[in-house]
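User: Predict the structure for this protein chain, please.
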Amino acid sequence: MAAGGVVSGAHPRADRSEGETTVPPIPRQRGSVEVWSHLVIDMGVEILLDPRRSGLTPEQVRALARGVMELFDRLRSERE
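Assistant: Here is the predicted structure, written as C-alpha cells:
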C-alpha cells in the first residue's frame, strides 16, 4: 500500500477523500505479467478487463456485464 492507504498501481477513484493522494497506474512494460478477466457477452463478444487497473468493484463489474449484455440483445433484436 502507498501512503494514504491507496494500493500502488490502483486506478485513481473519483470518490477518494480530499487530500488523499493516489499513485498513477504502473505502466505496462515488456515482460510484465497481468491477470485479465474475460466477460463473455455472447458468442464472439467478450470484454477484457484488468480488475486491478479498472478501479471497479466486483459488483460494478457484474453491473457492467449485465448492461452490455442488455445492450447487445437490444442491438441484435433490432437487426432481426
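The chain is about 30% helix and 15% strand.
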